[in-house]
Amino acid sequence: MVSAARAIEQGFAVAALTIDYNQRHRVEIEAARQIAAHIGAVRHIVLPLDLRQFGGSALTDDIDVPKTGVSDDIPVTYVPARNLIFLSLTLGWAEALGARDIFIGVNALDYSGYPDCRPEFIQGFERLADLATKAGDQGEPFTIHAPLQFLGKAEIAAEAARLGLDPGMSWSCYDPTPEGKACGLCDSCRLRKAGFADAGLVDPTVYAA
Predict the structure, then answer these.
(1) Residue 95 needs a FRET pair 20 to 30 A away by CA distance; which of 120, 180, 190, 196 works?
(2) What's the total number of domains in the chain?
(3) Chain centroid to CA 170: how far?
(4) For the segment 83-102, what is each residue's pLDDT rounded down to a tens digit?
(5) Is 173 marked within a binding site?
């Protein structure tokens, strides 16, 4: 949400892509629809891609989402190559649209250690995009923007406030309850809570714990 708003602030028109990969936290898909409408995206595609067929993650398989706190190890909520898959699909749509700028909201500070959030990955994909596309081959390079990459969660919450965004529209929890509440205990909930607290801002999220 903040990444898209930053793009608009810089003068870009936003075409938004949401991947419905049959994730456990499917409530984020409806959140993405609301956000895309709110920011005035010129188009929003929800693209089905059933990564449960692959499994290998607590978000796409019958594996419990950890609730004991953020650790130094890459957690089981890591979805194999997810951001590589997502960026590849985004790149294909961008080239079809004639767009050469891609925004992604990855974060390399307050995060769970996912390797596909690292600056090296973003830089590597940007190089790959020019090798993999007709546009790149014809001298029209792509730029991958990751405006949140070096911001802490508190800084991102503050940036949402600066941009006039309602953080209640966004979704972070990996394991929502059947009643639609955020669990409050998964890594993503813990990082979100801490970010709002550190920023001195009210977190409008309804947590089960």
Answers:
(1) 120
(2) 1
(3) 10
(4) 999 999 999 999 999 999 99
(5) yes
